[in-house]
Design a protein that fits this description.
Helix content: 40-55%
CATH topology of the largest domain: Rossmann fold
Strand order of the largest sheet: 7-6-5-8-9-10
Shape: globular
CATH superfamily of the largest domain: Glycogen Phosphorylase B
Length: 340
């Protein structure tokens, strides 16, 4: 019923020119899998706020152009902006004379590895075209609008980001310690006030129930939580002091890529792991503020992710479902063979 009602609400917001309401509805449309509608509303919001520019790419050939794909346009934007659109970037960059990617500072080496022929710079940044070239700009809205964001197109264009392969192998060997045992990353906490976080006891159940070696992929100073998780579960939880995702996202990406699966709440790590095509179980709460799907466990943007929604259940029941999904995911990883 919500999917059917949303377009009418959007028309009402458009009719009165309420960009803020339309912005909230756009996020809801993305959560409900209405990607084309969400993108159309994003264009209307941009129009209402006077943010469209004449340099925005409209689908014309780019053989004479400097294309600037801008994922960090303001200092307030987070690192997750644009991570789902790697395939869209690849599709448009192939036809440009020169491509410049503007990304969050910590993501520069990851994007440079993934797009070796592009210039990758820290944003926000002002880029000027070379002599004889015209400047064409694109952001997440423009890429979705011009190249398309229906499910078949999303799946066809999908391309993962690339972690450093040597670092990935090194992390995997270090964590495995010579044993043939799955490596599972967990991330359980967020400083963001708008999230309903599972208690540590729920994670303890997971650590006790799955035969695996668990790896901390949580940001911040969580020494007390680490001690509590180890004590309550009776299991080891690897905490690698050489990885600091708040400073070095390239090393963090390699750590994530070394794992067989990750169980995480919504955070930058979840977005990055999904963009790397690492198998992820996303622990979704019931607060309708995240951009993860609410009517499905899958999203075409993140083909290796399973979104397990709380959906009114208590955390114990929720994590019983997550444990079932994780067992299946780890079995699938084992059946597909050893990681490189």
């Amino acid at each position: 019923m919500l999917r059917e009602a949303l377009p009418a609400l959007g028309q009402r917001a458009l009719g009165v020119g309420d960009a803020q309401l339309l912005s909230e509805l756009r996020l809801a449309a993305d959560q409900l899998g209405l990607y084309e509608l969400a993108t159309a509303w994003h264009n209307e919001i941009t129009r209402l706020r006077g943010q469209k520019t004449s340099a925005d790419w409209k689908g014309e050939p780019l053989g004479d152009s400097t294309l600037v794909v801008n994922f960090i346009e303001t200092v307030k934007q987070g690192a997750a902006a644009g991570l789902r659109l790697t395939g869209h970037v690849a599709a448009v960059a192939s036809g440009a004379c020169r491509t410049v990617l503007v990304v969050e500072r910590r993501l520069v080496p990851i994007y440079q590895r993934t797009f070796p022929d592009a210039e990758v710079v820290e944003g926000p940044a002002v880029i000027k075209p070379l002599d004889g070239e015209r400047l064409v700009t694109a952001n997440t809205r423009v890429l979705r609008t011009v190249l398309g964001c229906d499910e078949p197109t999303i799946r066809r264009l999908h391309k993962p980001l690339l972690a450093d392969p040597e670092s990935t192998r090194r992390f995997r060997a270090l964590y495995r310690k010579g044993e043939e045992i799955p490596l599972i990353g967990i991330s359980w906490w967020s400083s963001h006030h708008g999230k309903d976080l599972p208690p540590l006891e729920a994670w303890v159940r997971l650590m006790r129930g799955i035969r695996a070696r668990f790896v901390n992929v949580q940001y911040g100073d969580v020494a007390a939580d680490l001690g509590a998780l180890r004590q309550m579960s009776g299991r080891d939880l690897i905490d690698d002091p050489t990885v600091n995702q708040l400073e070095d996202m390239d090393s963090f990406a390699a750590q994530l890529a070394s794992l067989d699966a990750i169980v995480t709440i919504s955070c930058t790590g979840a977005h990055l792991a999904a963009a790397l095509d690492v198998p992820v179980i996303l622990v979704r709460d019931d607060w309708f503020r995240r951009e993860w799907p609410v009517l499905s466990e899958k999203t075409p943007w993140c083909p290796e992710m399973v979104v397990v929604g709380k959906d009114g259940r208590d955390w114990e029941t929720h994590f019983a479902m997550i444990e079932t999904r994780l067992r299946s995911m780890v079995s699938d990883c084992a059946a597909s063979g050893e990681k490189g």
